[in-house]
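pasting for ref
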Amino acid sequence: MDYSHPPFGNLTLITEETTDTSFLQGKFNEMPFSIQITQPIDLEKIDFNFIQKKMTDFSQIKAKTELFLKNILHTHPEQLGCNNYETEINETKELISFPEFIFYDHKKNWDIIFRESILPIAEPYGILVNYHDNDITGFEDISNSEEL
């Protein structure tokens, strides 16, 4: 079933059979996003202005996220699968790219999966970075995940 919400256009409802979790999926500014929702669907509970703001501000969010990850590389490179910053990271390549946003209805917690990264822990699915409102709260190694 599809829903429509300007400026996001058509949103497709997907329900995961194994978890019975539902998502509205779409694209905004050529970037994919999902909104985890509770049934029954109530579009009024979804803060579309919040979602639009975050996706519109992606370039600033990406820069802030890169600084966050570079700080971890300098202080605890092993958390990102590196032996040390200097020998593992090629500064000429993008640290993170190909974002997929994940939002939650009526919550200020949200995530971005960067599907491509030069960080070793990003293989094969990417790296999941967690946010609350305007703050980065952490990251997750999803390399051993069974399904995304």
